[in-house]
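Re: beginner question about structure tokens

> Can someone show what the tokenized structure looks like for a real chain? I only ever see the sequence side.

Sure, here's an example I had lying around. Input first:
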Amino acid sequence: MRGGARGPGMALLRLRAVLRGPGGLRGPGIPWRIFRSYSSASTKEKANRSGTCERTELLEVLKARAKQLQGSNVPEVTVSKVELAALDNDKYQEAVVPGPKEKQPLARGDGLAQSNTWAKKLQKEMYSQQLKMKQELPSAASLALEGQAKVEVKAETRPPVKTMKSPKIPKTKAATAWNQSSGSPHSKPREMKEAAELKRPQRMPKDKSNQQALQQTIQSNLECFLFLQQAEEAERYLLLCHSSAGSLNRLERLFSILEASSLRPNLESYAVALECMGRTKSPPKTILRYLQQLNSSGFHVDELFQKCLFEEDEKEMVLWAIRTVQPNYQLPPPPSPKICKSSLLQDFYSRETMVSYPKLDFSVKELQERFQQQLEMELKNTVTIESVEAAKPLTPQAVKARELLGALRSQWHDATLQALQNSKRSMARPKRLSKYNILYPYLCLLPDEEYVDIMMQILNDLSPQGESLAVLARELGSKVYDRYIIQRKLRSGQLEKVQEIYENYIQLLAKDSQPKQYMPREYWEKLVAEAGFGPSLNLKTCSWPCVLLMRLGMHMLELLVKAVKVPRNILNRRLESKPIPVLYHVYSFYSNWQVGLIRPHPIFSQLVSNAAETTLTFNSSAMPMLCPPVPWTSPSFGAFVLNDTKLMRFMDETTHHQQLLEQCPLVNLHPVLDALNQLGNCAWKINQPVLDIIISIFNDKGNEKLDIPPPLSEAPKPPTPPSNSSSWSKSFKHEVFLCKKKAAEMHSLRMDALYKLSIANYVRDKVFWFPHNMDFRGRTYPCPPYFNHLGNDVTRAILLFAEGRPLGPRGLDWLKIHLINLTGLKKKNALQERLEYANEIMEDILDSADRPLTGRKWWMDTDEPWQALACCMEIAKASRSPDPAAYISHFPVHQDGSCNGLQHYAALGRDLSGAASVNLVPCGLPQDVYSAVAQQVEEFRKKDAERGLKIAQVLQGFISRKVVKQTVMTVVYGVTRYGGRLQIEKRLKEIDEFPEEYLWEASHYLVKQVFNSIKEMFSATRDIQNWLTESAKLIAQSGRTVQWVTPLGLPIIQPYYRSRSTVLNCGMQRLSVKTSNSSQKPDTVKQKNAFPPNFIHSLDSTHMMLTALHCLREGLTFVSVHDCYWTHALTVDVMNQVCRQQFVALHSEKILQDLSEFMLEKYCSSSSSSMEPIAQWQKRLMEQLSNVPRTGEFNLKQVMDSTYFFS
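And the corresponding structure tokens:
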């Protein structure tokens, strides 16, 4: 137990590998896996690549080939073995920084060793046993994997808990995986039995070779845990191993080892021991001894069932052991449901006002069938769908290329499988720990075939331009982790229990079942409590650290690069038939950084191009769900049936927010969970006529004006190079660079559209759902990343509510107003004027609906053309129906907040002038804050021009609403003057007449005037922003991170820390890994600058969630895109009323005062026993936090009568 001295509470923190420069993986708040788990042609990465000027491809391939030829005689990847003591040289350990130690109570006087003589005797054996283990294990290791098929652990199987109905779980597949290794890669401190894959290799086999295989697996995992500095994980792992084997003597020995190492058995340790005794039918005397020890350690037997998590039949085994000693023992009753006490939701959660949950238009049988379809899709891990890209005529060349690719892929599969097995065999042999054989347990979690499938998928998805080494490594590691989680759920019996509960949960939603007055979360919790025995559903999973994902992914990538080869003459028979690698490791320069890429050989790219394959493969979690999502009931359970999903998306590999959520009383999270469930339960369908028109244009060279990207064949052709390369001028090189950049941008946009349209086409005849989760500020997002209602105009236009509602008396009017809102033509006009305008142009609207591509095409000249076209079609159908009020509409109508961030600031500060500018005050016409700022800036410009300022004179006639809008909108969210200048420069560039030589000076001048205008117009906003910024600065300077709790009870922490880079030596190349964790100091600048926008984002998400919950109470369909709320045309008026009521209710709370009190308590309260004087920084912080900005005279209730607050 070498790691024991470090303390049992040591937790491994996630690390984020940052590829500096354009290799960066994602924007803040979005998990990297969202963008990189599905295909290499992701928009984000291609856009990143577009800004690079690469070396010529030929030179890179030649250099890489020369490098590869030097090692061509080596049949396998050869890695230098590194001793444990030498690992510091690799700086690997720097990348794994232990978190804050968990406080562990000291062993008491009546502890294990003093109360039991057997423990004293066993201590004497420890030293000799450890020596014996050291002698035995290396020899066992050398034989562990030879003849893998012969060394499968033929364990005695117990009766299954329950057999699944349909589809059948591939148990043989799972069994193969677990027979290859029963080792656990990861778990989490204080979480029960995270080493689930170790769960019962079952009885210890008598066959010696089997024992050696198991022993070697255990040793590999222990080395892994110790290497990762996780002493408590090693302890739990050992307990599970020996419990699984039913060896009580060994379990007792382990308890004595814990005592000798000053480690006190925790509650989970006793649960494992009692489960072992229940399984081996131990005598009552032995069980009683452990129960007495449990009591003397300060635990109660009821806590075993209240706090521990179980898998399979473990709960029954523990209960059997207890009843052997206490025959009349009864399980503690499930805790009575707690009711949320939030003042904003007291009425909502009151049983007196509870209404029946709305039904879906599906029967129980239909929902059961949909659940089975979803389960089948998730069990397959990936989904292959037809691309919407028009297939070229199948030429003889294409047929030949497809046959050739098929044969090659079969060879590559076999070669990669052989390379993997050789690699595992060599890892099982070394007598010293190296950074590579610590990967061994992780290469045994799945059947070998699955690792090969993952590698083949990466190869098939690789774009001709290649991909960053770091991105591919993380993607490979992540895919292994995702499949491992599914295997754990299959093995633990969790899936059978989820299926059983979901079949009953359907009763809440199905139209042919009795109405029930429960929220989805409440009903699911009720069903779980009634189920009683079986595995726990909240099997918390600890994500593997980034360093591990990178090492595992890099190893798999090395195998792929070495194993996959193609004959050089496959496309040109005149060449020799020497096999050459399909993949090359090359370097390119991005800014000042040298970045490693994996690039396919041009022969492979040509083959793929010739084959013109028309399928796309996605992870199942990238697809919309085919059944209603599993309701969120805790931070670690909800959304997909099998795919692992976090309630809160992580950022920069931090886990602080997850820990905060788990420490938070679950009842405080109920409003947030219920709001996410409500958004996820909205059923959708495809607007097929609009989708077909979009696909036809997509396949006919696209249309940039309509936001449908053209294919690469339409990209500008690079100029013809001069014959002498030495005479290439600077302007010629720049022109070539611009052509490459444009082509990369076009490819990026084209692939993004291809994915969205192909997924939409795949579900064109289906009803589907988008499960939701949130970022660390509480803003909600659909989990499927490509196709969802947060997408662009094209994506939103092809989505309809699956549920239809009659238009009612005002529904058609709302459709017409919505259409005019989408055009952007009448933003300054009253709603009635917009309606009148729609009636005036009815001829154009009907023409657009009837002849979208051949008529007058009025819809094409609008701000949101595709949504406008969809709305034209809906208006046409409704107006032509016999009774428009009875027409059943599935169309979503939107209501947008008017510069929503400034609305929250104005309400917080009761700022009268600010409130009027952003439509919090009733007015006959909508107030446009962007036009007001533009007008103010123009006033400043005129004065400066009169004083003779040259740039002010140049700008005459160029200052418009459009030029300043983006900067005004983002000032509230923390945009700096630097960022604002870039925004304005981009807008000025779009004006053809503006002189290019004045761009920098003009944008610099304008951003200064925009900031001055906002300060003048929103004085209270400025004061609040300054107070938030200064408070965050002082908190961060004291070495703490900024935390707060939203009015709905959601705890929030800003995960910005100073990161440091360390070098990870991964065979093919060294990778720079950035590590940031809670033991390092906060990033003061980020903490300070991000607090105001993050705080406002947390308020707008709170307002949205309140609106969602109260719309549910009113029986509305409701979804949101942040501050844009959607519902049926029939219910727009009701949603508008609810939206205003909840805004007033939210800001009637003492938000800033509560924030001040929370932070004073958290950061400035000193211990009552402490006699030390208050530090100077604490005094400054107390003074700052106590000085809450004063509020103005604005009467918040005026919002209730403001038509244009949301409109």
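Each token stands for a local structural state, so reading them left to right follows the chain. Residues 924-1017 form one domain.
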